[in-house]
Design goal:
256 residues; alpha/beta; Rossmann fold; Pantoate--beta-alanine Ligase, Chain: A,domain 2; 2 domains; six-stranded parallel beta sheet; binds pantoate
């Protein structure tokens, strides 16, 4: 596995087609590994990026406390058969100092877009840059960040980018908690409460009832809303913001 730290280095690499790409911010878990596995099964070359993208954090403290587990990440990726890790410097990726940005004006104005102003501008901008650098035939995203997945899928279609976006199912702990890098920040009692987010979200009660139940067990609710035949929630345990979503009625294939 080769660690590539600059765009020039990547340009000198000779990846075999097809290239499957998994963008990440590190602090990897089994959810990421399931994306890597999907990429490994369907491509000759697998590239994973690790870049904690500051422009998508609307809260500076959240950015500074984002977990960094570089050594562990690298050994996980080696074991998973990854060919390249792309880990660029901020200065190179944002040589324009973020003067140019990608914004979406409709879907990005609800849910996480509403409660985290500017978040999706940062996500779309960095993903556009990464896709333009890596030029993969396929890129893999988890459906825990369902809104992000849909925004990226539509951005790629809108700007005629020649990458197929593959959305993969949420991977959960045995107690139902959706895997997330932020789970590392939960205290022991918070970790015990966290699976209730998924459990309560699946109930047939209406969204107001669900908000109440989440509050009773200790969550500070950001939102519970229904869009696109899904129910979405974001809620805090202390300072840790967790998100999750469940389909309403329909079932989904693991990757589509
Ligand atoms: O989902 C993430 O980890 C990030 O939003 C992404 C897609 C790597 C962009 O920084």
């Amino acid at each position: 596995m080769k660690i590539v730290k600059s765009i020039r280095e990547w340009k000198n690499a000779k990846p075999e087609k097809t290239v499957g790409f998994v963008p990440t911010m590190g602090a990897l878990h089994r959810g990421h590994l399931s994306l890597v596995e999907e990429a490994r099964n369907n491509n000759s070359t697998v590239v994973v990026s690790i870049f904690v993208n500051p422009t998508q954090f609307n809260d500076k403290n959240d950015f500074h406390s984002y977990p960094n587990t570089w050594e562990k990440d690298i050994s996980m990726l080696k074991n998973a058969g990854v060919d390249y890790v792309f880990s660029p410097e901020y200065k190179e990726l944002y040589s324009d100092e973020y003067r140019y940005q990608i914004s979406e004006k409709k879907m990005a104005s609800v849910l996480c877009g509403e409660s985290r102003p500017g978040h999706f501008d940062g996500v779309l901008t960095v993903v556009m840059k990464l896709l333009n650098i890596i030029k993969p035939q396929f890129a893999y995203f988890g459906k825990k960040d369902y809104q992000q997945y849909m925004l990226i899928r539509d951005m790629v279609a809108t700007f005629f980018i020649e990458t197929q976006i593959v959305g993969c199912d949420i991977i959960r702990e045995t107690d139902g908690l959706a895997m997330s890098s932020r789970n590392l920040l939960l205290s022991e009692p918070q970790r015990k409460t966290a699976p209730l987010l998924y459990k309560i979200l699946q109930q047939t009660s209406n969204v107001n009832e669900i908000k109440k139940q989440l509050a009773v067990v200790g969550f500070k609710v950001d939102y519970v809303e229904e869009f696109w035949q899904r129910r979405f929630a974001a809620a805090f345990l202390g300072k840790v913001r967790l998100i999750d979503n469940v389909p309403l009625g329909e079932t989904y294939d693991s990757c589509s």
